[in-house]
Amino acid sequence: MVLLAIVLLFFQAMADLSLPTYTADIVNVGIQQGGVENAVPVAIRESEMNKLLIFMSDEESAQVMDAYQLVEPDTPEAETYVGDYPILADEAVYVLQDNDRNTIDTLNPVMGKAFLAVTGIQQAIDNPSSVPEGSFDLSSLPQGVDIFSLIPSLPAVIRDRITSMVNENLAALSDDMIIQSATVAVHSEYEAIGIDTSTLQNNYIIHTGVLMLIISLFSGVCTIGVGFLAARTAAGTARDIRRALFTRVEHFSNYEFDKFSVSSLITRTTNDITQIQMLIVMVIRIVFYAPILGIGGIIIALGTAPSMWWTIALAVLVLIGLIVTIFSLVLPKFRLIQTLIDRLNLVSRENLAGMMVVRAFNTQAFEENRFDAANRELTDTNLFVGRAMAAMMPAMMLIMNGATLLVIWVGAHQVSQLTIQVGDMIAFMQYTLQVVMSFLMMSIMFIMIPRAAVSADRIADVLETESSVKDPEDPKAFEPSAHSQVEFRNVSFRYPGAEADVLHNITFTAQPGTTTAFIGSTGSGKSTLVNLVPRFYDVTEGEILINGVDIRDITQHDLRSTVGYIPQKSVLFTGTIESNLRYADEDASLERLTEATEIAQAQEFISEKPEGLATPISQGGVNVSGGQRQRLAIARALVKHAPIYVFDDSFSALDFKTDAVLRKALKEKTGDSTILLVTQRVSTVQSAEQIIVLDEGRIVGQGTHDELMGTCTVYREIAESQLGIGDMAS
Description:
Layout: H1 2-32, E1 43-45, H2 46-54, H3 58-67, E2 68-71, H4 76-81, E3 93-96, H5 101-126, H6 147-150, H7 156-170, H8 175-193, H9 197-250, H10 254-259, H11 262-287, H12 289-304, H13 309-353, H14 355-360, H15 364-416, H16 422-463, E4 486-493, E5 503-510, E6 515-520, H17 526-531, E7 541-546, E8 549-550, H18 556-560, E9 563-566, E10 575-576, H19 577-581, H20 590-599, H21 603-608, E11 616-617, H22 626-639, E12 644-648, H23 656-669, E13 674-678, H24 682-685, E14 690-695, E15 698-703, H25 705-711, H26 713-723, H27 725-729
Parallel strand pairs: 6-13, 6-14, 9-12, 12-13
Antiparallel strand pairs: 1-3, 2-3, 4-5, 4-7, 7-8, 10-11, 14-15
Helix pairs in contact: 1-9, 1-12, 1-16, 2-5, 3-5, 5-7, 5-8, 9-11, 11-13, 11-16, 12-16, 13-15, 13-16, 15-16, 20-22, 25-26
């Protein structure tokens, strides 16, 4: 599509560059020359041709005679031409037979000079005062004498003086000016022959105008085609980049999410990619078009009026100076704008997510001021860039209008000196505007490219970031089993960039069909430990085994297909209750969904809703309570029928009764699964087959509830603080 767009742009540029030439033709030929294009008439009286031959060399005369055919009155040939040339009824006429372009170009200066010579002598006869001193005085000839019949028989000295006078008059004229001046005589000859010169002029102007209209329509079609291809290419590229970015982010571990904030990732996925998309459209439509237009305009303009080249150079130099000045002001602001958008997104996201907290503490004014500060800084920066760009456009227009005035001023003087034609001056002016416009378009690109480059760098930062958790090059075959043993062997873990480990030499085994609970004070490393099982992080030292296989030796997909994970913060997605449950298994039966909701103690509130499983869930599940959201998250994991379940403090929003009932149902229905459970509640872990007590990342106790009450001080303190001394005694 890009190659096709470039081809269309080339044709569009060629069409646009040809229009000023046709404008010049209408002015020069259609108006000034009455529609007569050449100094080579299509027909000329024999008497007039004889006058022209006087001022031609033998070689030139032979060329002219080869191109024309003499048609006499009252001959068969005359019947063919008399309708076009009425004078043929009374006088012989030479009719042009060879109208090949090369022949016309060869004869144009020859016949043009001859026409001007004849016209000049005729004017000298009619107006003797116009003859320069020292020249042959034609007024001394007897009345009624035809000078042109006498010239061939005049003495050589007199013929030379006449020829010298003619050549001196024509020496200062270019071939184009000679041809244009000669067309006046050709126009008079056409009138003498009987040709309708008004129709000739109108036909030329209409024909050229229609041709210009066709070219303009063709250019418009090319423009539409390029626009379509550019938009399609840009949209497709943005789609692919967005897909690649999203796919890359999906494979990030928690460490990469700590490196890139959520608000920044959103900006990179939306605003930054939009900048790239806009740039691609402009690159296709302008970057390829502007150089063709600019270079072509310069070449054709210099061919039209070489003496005025400096006007284009002056306009371009002033334009470049303006562009450099604007760039030096706005370029440093582009990266700042993207950073400020990140900050604004961050403030907006925090405010919207924490709106209830903001209202509860009556800090609306503080948050409004915080948002206003971020918004105002972004606004001020955008205004600065916008004002700089706004100042550039009128300055550009001033340069364009100044260039137009300069071309008219210089061109008018050259027209008066017969150096160029009026139409050529108009065409040169249009080419100058096209050249300036091409530089203007390129300047817009120079402004867009740095801003898009900033966005591209930010996108590349994400795409080039490799996940710290990678699949092995040669993964082991791993078939999920209904009975999965989880073993930690001397596991230590340190967050990337941290100075110390947060987990130290963790060793335990979780058997199938049992519950292994983790308890400890806040910050003891419970959640970090269970997050190592689905490889949200990789261990720093040691190894984690499932059925004797190191989890780093199997693919993340195979590993996570064996784990049902319920995070601390229950996350629901926009859709319905059913669609959220099917997130674990799209093909799950209705009976399986119902069973999962019954185990998770969610069936009661679901059945109370008129739409049941079809009840809509808004973004983040904000239209259900925290406890309901947590139970739905548990039910979603249970739909998976995983051999390993990881509950990361997933009962915190449940009341004690629901907690107890849920754990009992969970034990009955998932008796073969290995359950890893993080909790702050002693009541939740009392029935667990194995309780692991963590303190500052170390195991300080391991056993059942009764065993730990007698052997682990940390556990006993937690239990006493929650259950009370009286209860403990009983």
